[in-house]
């Protein structure tokens, strides 16, 4: 059977960020204990020694709020119930405030080999606007401590188009991040998501307009690539060989199993999601899921996800759609939204900015 990625959604946060619409609740010691026990039950339920797991991703929330012992027990259970590949990529998302030299050494020892650190900005004023608990100095210290602990696959999150952000502010954060011993940057355009504290006129009026946001994005791509972080997906940049193996599963329609409240899966021919409810997850012997797609990864979804990647869509993978795709392509080439070598179609950075519209025109 095909290889498998496992996603563990850890729904705890020390404090909810004002822009975030991901599912999370306040951390407590007892809730973390009960949550971990529920994760272990679900791993045993889905366990299949015929499935080789080559990526594990602890996302959230703030997974680094779990103890090293709790994380270790989850990794051990995956190893017991699946065929966990020795060279598996095992990622932990972390808030700089939850990391210490001691904690990092423990994480490295239990098998975490990739860290994704939620930095977001290297300017204290911007971090305060975002409601982050750390300072730029603490973020820098966390990265340096991680490198000293032996981590050689470190990713940092960066947000752009922040309230009142100027191009020079973004450049400052990129330059300061790029000077650190990191190998990957995930860079996102801030959106005032519905229902979040940022969903208000006071914030929206301070966000860069559409043209300014486009200029920031294109400048960011150029700056990161000059620093050696090559774009491989709409929002992701890596030094050679350090692309996220787990996240690439999503864009290539490969199998992944999600465990935890609000986790999503594409597993055994179906897409399904777990309810956004920690109490329900803890109470159930097996997580309750809702099937969201009975037959995922058809042409439209496959092409849409592949076009998020810089390598683009390989036409031999969709031979029955080759002629129609190439017929639609000329206006996109003329406007600089896409490129082709006759065997692949891929979007340019300008095309990535308009990806929803471009992909809809090309694929649907």
Automatic annotation (TrEMBL):
<dbReference type="InterPro" id="IPR007197">
    <property type="entry name" value="rSAM"/>
</dbReference>
<dbReference type="InterPro" id="IPR010723">
    <property type="entry name" value="HemN_C"/>
</dbReference>
<keyword id="KW-0949">S-adenosyl-L-methionine</keyword>
<keyword id="KW-0349">Heme</keyword>
<dbReference type="InterPro" id="IPR013785">
    <property type="entry name" value="Aldolase_TIM"/>
</dbReference>
<keyword id="KW-0004">4Fe-4S</keyword>
<dbReference type="InterPro" id="IPR058240">
    <property type="entry name" value="rSAM_sf"/>
</dbReference>
<dbReference type="GO" id="GO:0006779">
    <property type="term" value="P:porphyrin-containing compound biosynthetic process"/>
</dbReference>
<comment type="function">
    <text>Probably acts as a heme chaperone, transferring heme to an unknown acceptor. Binds one molecule of heme per monomer, possibly covalently. Binds 1 [4Fe-4S] cluster. The cluster is coordinated with 3 cysteines and an exchangeable S-adenosyl-L-methionine.</text>
</comment>
<comment type="similarity">
    <text>Belongs to the anaerobic coproporphyrinogen-III oxidase family. HemW subfamily.</text>
</comment>
<feature type="domain" description="Radical SAM core">
    <location>
        <begin position="1"/>
        <end position="233"/>
    </location>
</feature>
<keyword id="KW-0143">Chaperone</keyword>
<dbReference type="InterPro" id="IPR034505">
    <property type="entry name" value="Coproporphyrinogen-III_oxidase"/>
</dbReference>
<keyword id="KW-0479">Metal-binding</keyword>
<dbReference type="GO" id="GO:0046872">
    <property type="term" value="F:metal ion binding"/>
</dbReference>
<dbReference type="GO" id="GO:0005737">
    <property type="term" value="C:cytoplasm"/>
</dbReference>
<keyword id="KW-0411">Iron-sulfur</keyword>
<keyword id="KW-0408">Iron</keyword>
<dbReference type="Pfam" id="PF04055">
    <property type="entry name" value="Radical_SAM"/>
</dbReference>
<dbReference type="InterPro" id="IPR004559">
    <property type="entry name" value="HemW-like"/>
</dbReference>
<dbReference type="GO" id="GO:0051539">
    <property type="term" value="F:4 iron, 4 sulfur cluster binding"/>
</dbReference>
<dbReference type="GO" id="GO:0004109">
    <property type="term" value="F:coproporphyrinogen oxidase activity"/>
</dbReference>
<dbReference type="InterPro" id="IPR006638">
    <property type="entry name" value="Elp3/MiaA/NifB-like_rSAM"/>
</dbReference>
<dbReference type="Pfam" id="PF06969">
    <property type="entry name" value="HemN_C"/>
</dbReference>
<protein>
    <recommendedName>
        <fullName>Heme chaperone HemW</fullName>
    </recommendedName>
</protein>
<keyword id="KW-0963">Cytoplasm</keyword>
């Amino acid at each position: 059977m095909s290889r498998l990625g496992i996603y563990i959604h850890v729904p705890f946060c020390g404090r909810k960020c004002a822009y975030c619409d991901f599912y999370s609740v306040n951390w407590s010691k007892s809730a973390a204990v009960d949550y971990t026990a529920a994760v272990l039950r679900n791993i045993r339920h889905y366990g299949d020694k015929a499935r080789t797991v080559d990526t594990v991703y602890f996302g959230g929330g703030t997974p680094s709020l779990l103890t090293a012992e709790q994380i270790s027990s989850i990794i051990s259970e995956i190893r017991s119930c699946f065929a966990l590949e020795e060279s598996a990529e095992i990622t932990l998302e972390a808030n700089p405030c939850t990391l210490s030299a001691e904690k990092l050494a423990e994480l490295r020892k239990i098998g975490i080999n990739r860290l994704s650190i939620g930095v977001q900005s290297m300017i204290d004023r911007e971090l305060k606007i975002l409601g982050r608990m750390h300072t730029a100095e603490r973020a820098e210290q966390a990265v340096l401590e991680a490198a000293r602990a032996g981590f050689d696959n470190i990713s940092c999150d960066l947000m752009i188009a922040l309230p009142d952000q100027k191009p020079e502010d973004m450049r400052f954060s990129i330059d300061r991040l790029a000077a650190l011993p990191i190998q990957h940057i995930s860079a996102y355009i801030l959106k005032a998501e519905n229902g979040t504290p940022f969903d208000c006129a006071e914030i929206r009026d301070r966000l860069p307009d559409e043209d300014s946001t486009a200029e920031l994005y294109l400048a960011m791509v150029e700056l990161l690539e000059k620093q050696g972080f090559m774009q491989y997906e709409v929002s992701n940049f890596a030094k050679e060989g350090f692309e996220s193996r787990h996240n690439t599963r999503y864009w290539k329609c490969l199998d992944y199993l999600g465990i935890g409240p609000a986790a999503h899966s594409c597993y055994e021919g179906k897409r399904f999601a777990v309810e956004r409810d920690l109490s329900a997850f803890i109470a159930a012997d097996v997580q309750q899921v809702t099937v969201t797609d009975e037959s995922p990864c058809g042409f439209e979804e496959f092409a849409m996800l592949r076009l998020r990647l810089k390598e683009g869509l390989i036409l031999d993978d969709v031979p029955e759609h080759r002629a129609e795709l190439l017929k639609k392509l000329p206006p996109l080439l003329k406007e600089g939204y896409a490129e082709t070598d006759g065997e692949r179609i891929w979007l340019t950075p300008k095309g990535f900015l308009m990806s929803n519209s471009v992909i809809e025109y090309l694929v649907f």
